[in-house]
UniProtKB/TrEMBL annotation:
Domain Glycosyl hydrolase 94 catalytic residue range list: 307-734
Cited SMART domains: CBM_X
SUPFAM superfamilies reported in the protein's UniProt record: Galactose mutarotase-like, Six-hairpin glycosidases
Transit peptide as UniProt keyword: no
Pfam families reported in the protein's UniProt record: GH94_b-supersand, Glyco_hydro_94
Domain Glycosyl hydrolase 94 supersandwich span(s) in chain numbering: 11-270
Record's protein name: Glycosyl transferase
Superkingdom of origin: Bacteria
Organism of provenance: Blautia hominis
Keyword list, A-Z: Glycosyltransferase, Transferase
InterPro entries: 6-hairpin_glycosidase_sf (IPR008928), 6hp_glycosidase-like_sf (IPR012341), Gal_mutarotase_sf_dom (IPR011013), GH65_N (IPR037018), GH94_catalytic (IPR033432), GH94_Enzymes (IPR052047), Glyco_hydrolase_94_b-supersand (IPR010383)
Length: 810
C-alpha cells in the first residue's frame, strides 16, 4: 500500500494521505538552525544542539501521535481545520505534503478555501520560515480567522521535561506589534532568546498556554480557537506559547500571503549580562527585515534549491533502473547530509536529549558525505579527534554545542578508535589534502595536551595492538560496533572500569569483527604513512595487519563462516557449536570487505552461509538463531525479544557490508539483490508493513522471528545511509576515490547493461559511460579516457585537467 508517490523532477516525495503508519518527517536546516517537520506539521526546532538550545517542545510517544509542531488553525464559520490535518484532524477535500530537499510544502483545500504552507530554514539564517497562502476558490467572499501556534521549550530539553517545580514558575514573554518574544531564563545569565513573528498586523495574540487551551483543554480544540478569539495574554510563569490571530476577508479568487518567522537570536557580546531581563531586539529584527516580502521568501527558496542542485550534482547516475537512480541522485545523498548534521541526536526516535554526536557514528557518516562537502568534513574530523584520549581510546559520544565528550556514556567501545582512521583515509582519498594530518588536535579537548592528527591516528592504531586477547584478536571492551554485545558484563562489577593494559589484568572477550576492521584500516594507516615517507611506521602497520589476518584465519574461522567473538571465559560466540547465535552478519561482511579469506576461498563459503542462514525477503538478519532467553554472559543483545534490534533483527546498517563483500568476489547479481531488499524506493508499495518513510533508510527492520516481520524502526539517523551510498556508488557502480586518482571498478547485475555516471573529484568532472553488454557485471575489458585506451582501471589525478570523457566496457 502506498501513501504517496515520488516526484523525481521536483526531488520530492508527495504524501496524499495524512494517516501514514508513523509520522513521515523531513529535516529543515543545513548549518546552525534546524527543524524537524512531519507530514502533519508536527516537529520541533533547535539551534545547534537539540538538547541544550531547544526552541520548541515536542511530546514523544504521546497520544494522539505526533503532538506539537507549527500549527495554523483556520476558522471558517463552524468549521475549524489545519492545512497539515493535525491537530484538529478535520477531514480535508485535498491534502498533499511535499517533502523536498530542505523544505516541506503543504497543499490543502477545505470547502473551497485553499491553503499552501511552505516551511524551510533559509541558508545562513537562524530561523524557520513558514510561508502561508490562503486563496478563495468560491464565487462569494469569505471571512476567515487564522490562528498560529507554537509552544516554546525552556531551552534545556531535559530540564524542561523534568523539572516542573521550577519551570512552571519561569515563563516570560513580551509582545510588540506582531512580534512575540520568548525570554524565559534570559535573566539567568543567558544572552539568547527566541521570537515568533508575522509580517502582518494582528487582531490579537496569546503567550499563556493555560489561557489559550482553557481548563483541561487540548491542542486539537483550544478554547481560544473554538471561541474564535484571543485573550492577549502575557505569560508569567508557566508554559509560554506564541499565537497570532488574524482576521481575513477573501474576495472570490483572491489570495493573501503571510510570512511567519520562528527564530533564535542573541544579544551582542558586550551586552551579554549587563541588563538582565532586557533583550536587544535588533538581531531579531535584522533577520525579520530580510523576510518581509513574498519576493524575499521566494529568493531564499531559490537559493536553497540551487544549493541542493549544486550539491547533488557531484555524483549522479542515469540508467534503466529508475529506483536506483532516484536513491543515488536524490534521497540517499540527502539522507547522508542529514546524518552529517544530526549524527544520531535528533529524530522521532532519538529525542535529542541524550546521545549527542557519536564518535563511531560521525566517522562512518563522513564516508557518505565527504564528496559533497569536503571542507566541512575536514572540520568534522578535527572535532571528532579532539574527543580522543591520550591512550587512543575515545568518548563514545559528544555534545555538538560544546564538542566535549559525554561523561555519562564514557568510553570502552573498542572499535571506536579505528573509525577515525577510516574517516581520515576517506577524506584523503577524496581531497588529496594531506595538510590535515599536520593539524594540532587536542586530546580530550584539553589545550595543554595536543598533537598532530597523524599522531591521533597512531594512537588509534596502537590502542588496538596494545589491547589484544589470548587468541591475538582485539579485546572487545564494553562492546564493538554491536553496542549490545556485552561479553565482559558477567566478569565486571557494577561501576568497575574496563581494563586498559593487557589481557591478564581484566576481561578478555575478543572481537573478530574488530579484527577484520583492523586489517582494513591498519592497511590504510600504513598506506598513509607510506605516502608520507614514514617507512618504519608504514611497515609496522602492514606487519600488524598481516599478523591480524593470520590470527583471524587461525582462531576466527569456524569452518563455514567467521566467528563473531570469544566471550570473557574464552567461549566461542557465533559458532556452529552454539545452540543460539550460531552465525552473525558483521564478521562475514567486514572480514571479506577487508579482503580476509578471499584468496583462501573462505569468502564464498561465509557469504553462502549468510544467504542460507540469515536471508529474509526484507533483508539479512543480524544473527541466527535468535536468543530465546536472557544470557548474562552476552549482555543486552539477548534482552530484546527475538527478531528485534540486535537479537536477530535486520540491521540495515550492515547489509551493505555483505553487498560490498559480494562485489569483491564478483557476484553482482547477489550484491544488487541485497541492495534492493532494504532500499526504500523498492519497498514503497509495502508501506503498511514497512511503516517508516519510503524515501529514507531505517536502522532496523524486524527479523523473521518477530511477529511484525518487515516493520522498520529508527528511520533517518542511521549509518545505513552512508554505508549504502558507499556500497552503491563505489562498489556496485564502482567509482572509487583513491589516494592518487579515481578507480573504475563496477560490479553490476545482469539487468543493468548500460549507464552514465557523472562524478566530481578534486575539481575535475568525470563523465563515465559504462557498457555491460554481456551481463558479465565485473571486470574491465576496455577503458578509454578522452579517447585513449589505458592499461588498468585507475585514472591518475592530474592537476588542471577539468574534464574527462571515459568509456568503459565490462
Amino acid at each position: 500500500m502506498k501513501y504517496g508517490y515520488f516526484n523525481d523532477a521536483q526531488k520530492e516525495y508527495i504524501i496524499t494521505n495524512p494517516m501514514t503508519p508513523k509520522p513521515w518527517i523531513n529535516y529543515l536546516g543545513n548549518e546552525d538552525f534546524f527543524s524537524l517537520i512531519s507530514n502533519t506539521c508536527g516537529g520541533y526546532s533547535f539551534y545547534k544542539d537539540a538538547k541544550l538550545l531547544r526552541l520548541t517542545r515536542y511530546r514523544y510517544n504521546n497520544v494522539p501521535a505526533d503532538t506539537n509542531g507549527r500549527y495554523y488553525f483556520i476558522n471558517d464559520g463552524d468549521t475549524i481545520w489545519n492545512p497539515g490535518w493535525q491537530p484538529t484532524q478535520t477531514p480535508l477535500d485535498l491534502y498533499e505534503c511535499h517533502h523536498g530537499l530542505g523544505y516541506s510544502y503543504f497543499n490543502s483545500i477545505k470547502d473551497k478555501i485553499e491553503v499552501n504552507l511552505t516551511a524551510f530554514v533559509p541558508l545562513h539564517e537562524s530561523c524557520e520560515i513558514n510561508y502561508l497562502k490562503l486563496k478563495n476558490l468560491d464565487v462569494s467572499s469569505r471571512k476567515l480567522t487564522l490562528t498560529s501556534y507554537v509552544e516554546f521549550c525552556f531551552w534545556n530539553a531535559v530540564d524542561d521535561s523534568t523539572n516542573f517545580q521550577r519551570n512552571l514558575s519561569l515563563g516570560e514573554a513580551e509582545v510588540i506589534g506582531s512580534e512575540i518574544y520568548h525570554k524565559t531564563e534570559y535573566r539567568e545569565r543567558r544572552n539568547h532568546y527566541a521570537y515568533y513573528s508575522v509580517n502582518h498586523p494582528i487582531n490579537g495574540y496569546d503567550t499563556d498556554q493555560d489561557a489559550f487551551l482553557g481548563p483541561y483543554g487540548r491542542i486539537g480544540a483550544p478554547k481560544a480557537v473554538t471561541e474564535n478569539t484571543s485573550y492577549n495574554t502575557l505569560a508569567s510563569g508557566g508554559t509560554v506559547i506564541g499565537s497570532h490571530r488574524i482576521e481575513i476577508c477573501l474576495e472570490p479568487g483572491e489570495e493573501k500571503t503571510f510570512i511567519f518567522v520562528l527564530g533564535y537570536a542573541e544579544n551582542p557580546e558586550n551586552e551579554k549580562w549587563e541588563a538582565p531581563g532586557i533583550i536587544n531586539k535588533t538581531p531579531a529584527r535584522d533577520t525579520l527585515s530580510r523576510f518581509q516580502t513574498d519576493e524575499q521568501v521566494k529568493e531564499a527558496l531559490r537559493s536553497l534549491a540551487n544549493y541542493w542542485d549544486e550539491l547533488l550534482s557531484k555524483y549522479t547516475v542515469q540508467c534503466s533502473d529508475e529506483k536506483m537512480s532516484r536513491m543515488v541522485n536524490i534521497w540517499n545523498q540527502y539522507q547522508c547530509m542529514v546524518t552529517f548534521n544530526m549524527s544520531r541526536s535528533a529524530s522521532y526516535f532519538e529525542s535529542g536529549t541524550g546521545r549527542g554526536m557519536g564518535f563511531r557514528d560521525s566517522c562512518q557518516d563522513l564516508l557518505g558525505f565527504v564528496h559533497l562537502i569536503p571542507e566541512r568534513a575536514r572540520q568534522r574530523i578535527l572535532d571528532i579527534a579532539a574527543t580522543q584520549m591520550e591512550d587512543g581510546s575515545t568518548y563514545h559520544q559528544y555534545q555538538p554545542l560544546t564538542k566535549r565528550g559525554n561523561l555519562d556514556i564514557g568510553s570502552g567501545f573498542n572499535d571506536d578508535p579505528l573509525w577515525l582512521i577510516a574517516a581520515t583515509a576517506s577524506y584523503l582519498k577524496e581531497t588529496g589534502d594531506y595538510s590535515i594530518l599536520k593539524e594540532q588536535v587536542e586530546f580530550d579537548n584539553n589545550p595543554s595536551k595536543a598533537d598532530t592528527l597523524l599522531e591521533h591516528l597512531k594512537r588509534s592504531f596502537d590502542y588496538t595492538i596494545s589491547h589484544l586477547g589470548p587468541h591475538g584478536l582485539p579485546l572487545i571492551g564494553r562492546a564493538d560496533w554491536n553496542d549490545c554485545l556485552n561479553l565482559n558484563c558477567f566478569s565486571k562489577e557494577p561501576g568497575e572500569s574496563f581494563q586498559t593494559t593487557g589481557p591478564s589484568e581484566g576481561p578478555v572477550a575478543e572481537s573478530v569483527f574488530i579484527a577484520g576492521m583492523f586489517v582494513k584500516y591498519a592497511r590504510e594507516y600504513g598506506k598513509i604513512n607510506e605516502l608520507l615517507g614514514n617507512r618504519y611506521e608504514s611497515h609496522r602497520a602492514y606487519d600488524a595487519a598481516n599478523l591480524m589476518y593470520d590470527s583471524i584465519l587461525k582462531d576466527g574461522w569456524d569452518g563455514e563462516w567467521f566467528l563473531r567473538a570469544y566471550d570473557a571465559f574464552g567461549n566461542k560466540v557465533g559458532s556452529h557449536e552454539n545452540e543460539e547465535g550460531k552465525i552473525f552478519i558483521e564478521p562475514q561482511g567486514f572480514c571479506v570487505l577487508a579482503e580476509v579469506g578471499i584468496k583462501e576461498g573462505y569468502a564464498e563459503s561465509c557469504l553462502d552461509s549468510v544467504e542460507k542462514m540469515l536471508d529474509t525477503k526484507y533483508g539479512i538478519m543480524l544473527q541466527q538463531p535468535a536468543y530465546q532467553t536472557y544470557h548474562l554472559s552476552l549482555g543486552e543483545i539477548s534482552s530484546y525479544p527475538p527478531g528485534y534490534k540486535e537479537n536477530a533483527g535486520i540491521f540495515c546498517h550492515n547489509n551493505p557490508w555483505v553487498s560490498i563483500a559480494e562485489t569483491l568476489i564478483g557476484r553482482g547479481n547477489r550484491a544488487f539483490e541485497i541492495y534492493r531488499r532494504t532500499c526504500p524506493a523498492y519497498i514503497e508499495n509495502i508501506s503498511e508493513i514497512h511503516r517508516t518513510e519510503p524515501y529514507v533508510y531505517s536502522q532496523m527492520i524486524a527479523g523473521a522471528d518477530a511477529p511484525k516481520h518487515g516493520e522498520a524502526k529508527n528511520s533517518w539517523l542511521t549509518g545505513t545511509a552512508a554505508w549504502t551510498f558507499v556500497n552503491v556508488s563505489q562498489y556496485i557502480l564502482g567509482i572509487q576515490p583513491d589516494y592518487d586518482g579515481l578507480v573504475i571498478d563496477p560490479c553490476l547485475p545482469d539487468e543493468i547493461t548500460e549507464l552514465d555516471i557523472t562524478r566530481h573529484y578534486r575539481g575535475t568532472i568525470y563523465h563515465i559511460h559504462v557498457k555491460n553488454p554481456h551481463g558479465r557485471g565485473k571486470g574491465i575489458k576496455e577503458m578509454l579516457v578522452n579517447g585513449h585506451r589505458i592499461t588498468g582501471n585507475k585514472i591518475a589525478y592530474v592537476e588542471n585537467i577539468l574534464d574527462y570523457e571515459i568509456e568503459v566496457i565490462i
